[in-house]
Write a structure and sequence with these properties.
Chloramphenicol Acetyltransferase, 7-stranded mixed β-sheet, 34% helix, two-stranded antiparallel ribbon
Length: 291
């Protein structure tokens, strides 16, 4: 007797495709199988031998279990495939945020009047949108067979949001055509709806590139995983005050650490260095973003 739930037509299709429906359900971590699941091919990570991971943890002490959501399972499969199949490299850099912070604080009263809190993340979205227009290979996707590079004539930026039910990545559409206040308002709206599980399907997917921001939590650097079919992802951690020499004079300067992970099949190290040099220049002098 099987515990797998599937319609008679799905079972018939599984027999025609010679698919073991119970084994498929176990591999996907699911109890229900739909017709579209029958065409799923295991990634390198999913087909690897994981028998050594099957450990009875209770023999070493008390344990408890909780099920993972279907949303988390889908995200985990995508990230595992990305880690297994994409030759990723991470470029680390930092940017002086004195001017951004001064400008942001100068707009505090206007933000209160508008009902919008202008966070530093809005400036990063604007800067990234500018860079994606300037460096087209970053605003691209590689076809699954690796034979074609799809260059995009739009700039949509994903914002990774940490929620109690898993990481969600809603998208700001046409970020290169929107002003700072509109982007700030959209970030707040998307983050709030993600936390409340009110994000719609149209709010997700199709990003040119994603920003994952840990600045409000901590850390000095990390290696974000590229979110395919995107070819790069930008990580941000907490701003740190560092000593910068102005001639013979040491000065305390707030610097934001930036971590750019990229698919080396599409982007090389020199591309990444140029991209981040331009990005840091925009953050250092935000007037360049507003021209």
């Amino acid at each position: 007797m099987t515990d797998t739930i599937a319609s008679p037509s799905t079972r018939r299709l599984a027999r025609e495709k010679d698919v073991d429906i119970d084994a498929l359900a176990k591999r996907l971590g699911r109890t229900t199988i739909a017709p579209e699941d029958l065409d799923r091919r295991p990634s390198t990570a999913q087909s690897a031998d994981t028998t050594l991971w099957d450990v009875n943890h209770a023999q070493y002490g008390a344990v408890s279990e909780e099920p993972t959501s279907r949303f988390a399972q889908v995200a985990a499969r995508n990230m595992a495939a990305a880690q297994a199949l994409i030759p990723a490299v991470t470029h680390h850099d930092r940017a002086d945020v004195r001017a951004v912070e001064a400008f942001r604080h100068s707009l505090r009263s206007e933000g209160e009047a508008r009902g919008v809190k202008l966070k530093a993340l809005a400036f990063h979205v604007v800067a990234l949108a500018r860079c994606l227009r300037r460096f087209g290979r970053f605003n691209a996707s590689l076809s699954p067979d690796g034979q074609r590079l799809i260059l995009k004539d739009y700039v949509h930026i994903g914002i990774a949001v940490d929620t109690p039910h898993g990481l969600m990545v809603p998208v700001i559409r046409d970020a290169d055509r929107k002003g700072l206040w509109q982007i700030a308002a959209e970030i707040a709206d998307l983050a709030a709806r993600a936390q409340a599980r009110k994000i719609k399907p149209d709010d997700m997917g199709g990003a040119s590139m994603t920003i994952t921001n840990l600045g409000g939590i901590g850390g000095t650097a990390f290696t974000p995983i590229v979110n395919p079919p995107e070819v790069a992802i930008l990580g941000i951690t907490r701003t740190q005050t560092e000593t910068v020499w102005d001639g013979d004079t040491p000065r305390p300067v707030p610097m934001v650490p930036l971590d750019l992970s990229y698919d080396h099949r599409v982007i090389n190290g020199a591309d990444a260095a140029r991209f981040m040099t331009h990005y840091c220049g925009l953050i250092t002098d935000p007037r360049n973003m507003l021209i």
